[in-house]
Amino acid sequence: MPDKTPKPKHPTTLIDVFKQMQPSESVNPVLGAQIEQFWDAQEKMLEEAENFAQHWFERRHEAVRSALKAARTASSANAGDPSKAMQTITEWQRHSAERLIADAQEWFETVARCAAYAAETEAEAVEKTIDDVTTTAKKVGQSSKSEPV
After folding, report:
1. Strand, coil or helix: what is 29?
2. What whole-number distance in Å separates Cα of residue 128 and Cα of residue 122?
3. Residues of the chain whose pLDDT is less than 70?
4. At what angle do helices 83-146 and 32-75 cross, to 10 degrees?
5. How far is residue 76's CA from residue 68's CA, in Å, rounded to a whole number?
6. How far from chain centre, in Å, is Cα 36?
């Protein structure tokens, strides 16, 4: 008597899951240039993001140090002359605004460089793909002419 148990449509073992995750062995070689360029652009964008984050944290550390210094200066100022405390706070706010502007400026520059990487690598990938297709087409054309019918 045949087994009438329906087979599940999803993987049932870890091995099945890994088999589904393996790349197809028949990936079109024409896509090779595009895949390579994609990952190259990803690497460059990650480096850009890392640099931006490092500079952002440096500015945040400076903000905390300067806030602590301003708080100490303002709290130790002569109570009879609050202008010293106000001047300290005003200067801290000015530097904070400068840091925020630096954040925004560096972010826009980072995004612009990342967009340029994406555009450049896409153009390179298209050019390489066209070259690969042309080379393959020539090979196919030559082999079909050289074989007798």
Report:
1. helix
2. 10
3. 1-12, 14, 17-30, 140-149
4. 180
5. 12
6. 15
